[in-house]
Amino acid sequence: xxxxxxxxxxxxxxxxxxxxxxxxxxxxxxxxxxxxxxxxxxxxxxxxxxxxxxxxxxxxxxxxxxxxxxxxxxxxxxxxxxxxxxxxxxxxxxxxxxxxxxxxxxxxxxxxxxxxxxxxxxxxxxxxxxxxxxxxxxxxxxxxxxxxxxxxxxxxxxxxxxxxxxxxxxxxxxxxxxxxxxxxxxxxxxxxxxxxxxxxxxxxxxxxxxxxxxxxxxxxxxxxxxxxxxxxxxxxxxxxxxxxxxxxxxxxxxxxx
Length: 257
Description:
Layout: E1 4-10, H1 18-32, E2 38-40, H2 53-56, H3 63-75, E3 78-87, E4 90-98, E5 104-108, H4 118-121, E6 130-133, E7 136-142, E8 160-164, H5 172-186, E9 189-193, E10 196-198, E11 204-206, E12 210-212, E13 218-221, E14 227-233, H6 235-244
Parallel strand pairs: 1-2, 2-3, 7-8, 8-9
Antiparallel strand pairs: 1-14, 3-4, 4-5, 6-7, 9-12, 10-11, 12-13
Domain CN hydrolase: 4-238
Pfam family, one: CN_hydrolase
Family: Belongs to the carbon-nitrogen hydrolase superfamily. NIT1/NIT2 family.
């Protein structure tokens, strides 16, 4: 298990304009992604949090997936974030995780944000997903999943939890409280990446993308910055903390329906 260099990308998103968003993100990464192992983009980074599911959905292997694979190969790193993907007659808010060797893993958002009608436009994922990358076990999560700790409970199967989001500024206090809580209760590193700016519905986003060590220490806080931040997750520190404070040995067993 080596140290993992992670780049958080927090930016404004053009509304339902995938090509514009890909172009903008690529320009940001040209300046900041050197030497990273993992780039984390926000939720629905090609469109913003749109409920026009069918109109915005791409097919598996579509333009954005190909774009992610190209950038992963170019920067020799993994790249992750969510987009709308259509499979047969259903659209999913799908978090893609692509690597430079051309492999693509995905997680379909399980907890759909009913206050915006997401549960009426998108299908709910059924599987909790972890991926392996450069010696780290990584849990994939999307936005509203953050409010459901049983689903993200560490079963001694991950070292890093990723949360990609379009989390409104009106509830930024919740975001900033829950991300450290997930790190502390699961003895795992946590990275949460949100967007900034205002969307076409007039909803504002304050960013507040965070990186947190397993003991709750803050490693990065982008506040309302429009741009990127890179941090290093120290594997020795993580393993030493888990040895020193093995709370996982006393954890309760939960079973999801």
